[in-house]
Each structure stands twice: as structure tokens, then as C-alpha cells.
Amino acid sequence: MSSSKQPIIVIGGGLAGTEAAWQIAMAGIPVIFYEMRPLRFGGAHHTEHLAELVCSNSFGAMASDRAAGLLHEELRRLGSIVISKADEHKVPAGGALAVDRGVFSQDLTETLSKHPLIDFRREELREIPEGIVVLATGPLTSPDLAEDLRRFTGMEYLSFFDAASPIVVGESINHDIAFMASRYDKGEAAYLNCPMNKQQYLRFWEELRQAEQVELKGFERENAKFFEACLPIEEQAQRGEDTMRYGPLKPVGLTPPSTMGWAENCDRLHPGGLRDDSPEGEEVKKQRPYAVVQLRQEDKAGKLWNMVGFQTNLRWGEQKRIFQMIPGLENAEFVRLGVMHRNTFINAPQLMIPTLQFKSRPTLLAAGQIIGTEGYTAASAGGWLAGTNAARIALGKEPLTIPNTTMMGALFEFISSASPKHFQPMPPNFGILPDLGVKIKNKRERYGKYRDRALEQLSIIKEELVVNC
User: Fold this and answer.
1) Whole-prediction pTM
2) CB atoms closer than 10 angstroms to residue 198
3) Which of 219, 261, 295, 373 has its CA 20 to 30 A from that of 392?
């Protein structure tokens, strides 16, 4: 392989940066690979090794009829160094791909350090350099580099002590209870609304107040500042019985269709003194639920729905138990549960295209959590595509756009086309894939069909995806 070409710069030694640097080097392009540790540590890191797994040691389900497992398999077939080492260092974990995290990270560090085309530099970059660059600095990007990125984009970072809302699979919502409407019927009906009577609401409120929360790590506790507009739902519950009813669960302007029998069953649904003394007040109360949980469409196809105002730090088991108390969500399937942590990411839908290039500077690419993907495998996938496309640019080739029938392609299409106003990080999930065109009720069978289509598509285009030296 020739090393006479201009080096590509990769910034950040997490999963995305590690994968990107490897793919560039394997394409025959020299890499200058920057990692600021051990000179400067992010709050979540404990070692100086590449691709450190700071939370769990699990990459998610191994089975390819699971979203994470399908993404594993796609990367495996594309020659991912991260998934290769994960397979090599896996440990027993039931149906999950879990690794010996220390050995895994150390092996990747040694492997990349020995590659003749990778110039591994332990330095902190404070500005985005010129040339072809892959930015993979993760959720704890150093302040100086974050400020330079802010200047480049002209936008504030989406960086705060974040409590993200759960996302629900649309077909798991009970549409006999949830109804489509927008508040005061303004514009088109854009929200799914789950109405609650007083008894249901008070029971829900009490459970939220008593629910068990995740204990924050030391570095997170130090930065535990909430925005009033983004309070965790359990924090709202602690502020009083009616706080949620005057916030995200306010029922005003939302009237269930007459076919739902809400008014006819008002006495049964709203026992005990809900009516005003006036006849007019009585009629209004008949037509209006005591509280309403709203869900906002998350993707173009309407397959995923975000629980509006339900940012949370509850333990995942508590979230499932309590949120399934909401009428219409009793059988809800969650593709993402709420989490709370410091999270730094850019508004990718406004800034990027599915090739992971910035619209305003095609020679600058980015990958990992900084672009709004969530999870180890998604970070690795972003690193693979950003590294591959950086190498293709250097070789004078057109960057690749991965078909959205694959998990990789669907994920990167999502982060580049979601609503900028409501953009939140997204993990791999079947809800972002295009419909199969046929109805398959059995979930495992349906997911198997998604897998078969994705891998068939990947096999057809695999020769194009390989960057030749």
C-alpha cells in the first residue's frame, strides 16, 4: 500500500474514531489519529485505551433478527475491526454480544498502534484542522474543540444534562384508546393522545413519586442541572399533584372522538367532584379527560412515537411498569427507554447528509454519539462509513450512501432527515426501516424478513462498498 497520499485526520479514540482510522488505513491512506487521553480525560473514562466501553460491556443482542444483532452482522460482513475484536473477545452473556472490555480495548489499541499507516498521537486538538477530517469526539468533546465546532456550524451545541424521552413502536399502541389530534384542532392531527381519568392519573402520579431512579455517577452529579423546559417527568411529579396536568399532560384543547364514548361514560371515568357548578362547566368536563399523555411522531413513516415531555431518570424496569399504566400503552413496546446523562451532540438533520459529510464542508465527516446515534454498535457503524467515505474522497471516488433497507443505511438516513426541532439520539431499531410491503403479525418472523432483506441488499452492493487500494 502506498503512503504517499495526504494523511486523513481522525479526532477521537472511541469506537467511532477507532473504526474510522482502521478503515482509512486499510484503504491505503495514511492516518493521523488523535486521542487526548491520558493528557486529558473525559469525565466518563477510566483508561487511556482506544474504544473504551465506559458503560456496559455489551454490544446488545447477537441474534440477527434483533436490531443490534443485524447491525453487528452488517458490520461483520463489511470488515469492521470493532466487531471482529468483539467476536474475538466475547464472554458468555446469554443472547448478547458482550466482551472482556479490558482485553478488547487493549487489543484494539495495540492493533491500531502497530499499523504502518496510522500515526497515533496522544494530543488534544483544540480546533478542527484543514483537509479531510473525521470528527469522532463523542459526548464529552473537550470545551475548546466544542467551541470551534460551534463557530464552524454557527449553531449552539445540543449539550446539556440530558434526560431523554422513551420511544414507542407505533403498532404496539392501542388505537382503540389513543386518538389522533392536535391541541385545539390546530393544523393536521399530528399527535397520538392517551386520555386518563382522575383515578388513573392519581394512581400514575403516586407511582411516579415513589419510583426508583438510576443513581448518577460522580461526574454526572457534579453537572446535575436541569432546564425547566426539560424536567424529568418524575421531578415534575415531586412538585405537586397538578404539575404534570399543567405541563406535558395538560388535557385542554384535546377532545376524544365521540365514537370513543368519553362523554357518555363521564360519570364512570371521572368519579368524584370533577364538575363545575354551572351546566356549562359540566358539559366541558364531560368532553375533556382529566389528563392526556401525548406521543409525537418520530420518523417519516409514523412507526415510532416519542412520549412528549417524558424525559426520565427512572430505572428501565420502573419505566416499563409505570408507563404501561398509561391507557393505550398497556402493551407498549419500547425501542428506547428514557436515560439521563450529559450528552453533547450536533443537530445532524440541519448539518449533515447520509454519507456523514457536513453539508457546508464535504471534506469534514463525523461519526458516533456526536452526530446523534446511540449505542456502541451504532458508533462503530458510523466510524465505518465516515472512515470509508473519507478514504473514497481521498481516492477521488464518490462517497457511499448506504441503502436505507439496511440497518446502517436507515440509521444514517434518520439522523440526517429527522425533525431538527425535536432531534434526539437514536439507537438502531426496526422502526426506522422501510415497510416490507406485507403485513406480518408475528414479530420474530417480521424482524427476520427485515434481516433477510437487509443482508440480501448488502450482498448485492458489497463490491461497491469495498474501497480498493
Assistant:
1) 0.70
2) 16
3) 373
